[in-house]
């Protein structure tokens, strides 16, 4: 086997191992932590990695990072509204700033990053099913640290990470929905027993408490389960 073939096999095995770790994570946050730890060691040239998540109303925040300075560098991007990460969450899939000392794309962010010890950045958009999740960001402490090979490895890595993060998010949503349904059912049972109501009448009691107090139905159920108190509502 030639050197190129050996490298391809090594990468394939590395990504297979990575996916095992990502799918073994039991929450979105643990998945994000696995992503940044693996990215920092898998993408040539990187000394640290972070994941920026896209939130409501266009807000971006750093959800996981391998080093404290990552959050500081990211904060500069968010405040200035420019930089590889912001661009990846926005219009471009891959953004490379391989020498932030001389980069002209982001004239305000470059000096800020250098002052924090980062001389190069490489960012990839994270997306699944057409939805932008955020960006995977790699950081280097020297100019020209990232190569075409870094970009190729990072692109594959980001694709795998996107799927894993989206799956973890869906699993958490499903788990929360099942928990909510179970709590509402238990609360209905308590109301039925205490007030000798049918299940439909008991559910209507919960619904009216929710409306009168302007709180979600699941919160009403949670309070009944954990306090034992049922706010008085006329039938």
UniProtKB/TrEMBL annotation:
**Sorted alphabetically, which PROSITE patterns does this protein's record hold?**
ANTAR (PS50921)
> Which parts of the sequence belong to the ANTAR domain?
164-225
Q: Which UniProt keywords apply?
A: Kinase, Transcription, Transcription regulation, Transferase
Top-level taxon of origin: Bacteria
SMART domains assigned to the protein according to its UniProt record, in alphabetical order? ANTAR
UniProt keyword Transcription, yes or no: yes
Name the UniProt record assigns to this protein: GAF domain-containing protein
**Organism expressing this protein natively:** Actinopolymorpha rutila
């Amino acid at each position: 086997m030639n050197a190129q073939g050996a490298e391809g096999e090594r990468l394939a095995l590395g990504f297979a191992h990575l996916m095992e770790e990502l799918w073994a994570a039991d929450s979105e946050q643990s998945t994000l932590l696995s992503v940044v730890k693996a990215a920092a060691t898998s993408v040539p040239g990187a000394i640290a990695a972070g994941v920026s998540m896209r939130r409501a109303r266009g807000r971006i925040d750093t959800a996981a990072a391998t080093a404290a300075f990552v959050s500081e560098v990211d904060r500069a991007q968010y405040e200035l509204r420019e930089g590889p990460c912001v661009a990846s969450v926005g219009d471009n899939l891959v953004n490379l700033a391989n020498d932030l000392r001389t980069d002209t794309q982001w004239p305000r962010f470059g000096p800020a990053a250098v002052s924090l010890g980062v001389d190069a950045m490489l960012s990839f958009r994270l997306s699944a099913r057409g939805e932008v999740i955020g960006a995977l960001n790699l950081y280097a402490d020297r100019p020209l640290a990232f190569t075409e090979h870094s970009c190729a490895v990072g692109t594959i890595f980001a694709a795998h990470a996107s799927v894993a993060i989206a799956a973890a998010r869906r699993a958490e949503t499903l788990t929360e929905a099942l928990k909510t349904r179970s709590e509402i059912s238990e609360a209905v049972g308590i109301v039925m027993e205490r007030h000798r109501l049918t299940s439909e009448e008991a559910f209507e009691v919960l619904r009216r408490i929710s409306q009168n107090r302007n709180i979600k139905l699941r919160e009403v159920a949670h309070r009944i389960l954990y306090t034992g108190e049922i706010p008085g509502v006329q039938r």
